[in-house]
């Protein structure tokens, strides 16, 4: 029973910290685009850099 007096406040505090951090990240927009980062791994980095340079008007 004494363990509950220690573990319950610690778990509530830890849950509150995680909830606060989650809300702050949602406000910053970290969860706005969930599909692009997952698809980015499918393409080679070299091709992405070439495509970005072409879009920006830069050529190698």
How is this structure best described in words?
By secondary structure, the chain is an all-alpha fold. The chain has one domain. It is 73% helix and 0% strand. It has 3 helices and no strands. The protein starts with a helix and ends with a helix. The mean pLDDT is 81.
Shape: elongated
Our estimate of the beta-strand percent is under 5%
Rg measurement, Å: 22 Å
One letter per element, helices H and strands E, the order comes to HHH
Tally of individual domains: 1
Helicity, as a percent range: over 70%
Give me the number of helical elements: 3
Count of extended strands: 0
Overall mean pLDDT: 81
Query: What class do helices, strands and sheet pairing give?
Result: mainly alpha
Task: Describe how the helices and strands are arranged.
Blueprint (H helix, E strand, L loop, with lengths): L1 H27 L7 H5 L4 H12 L4
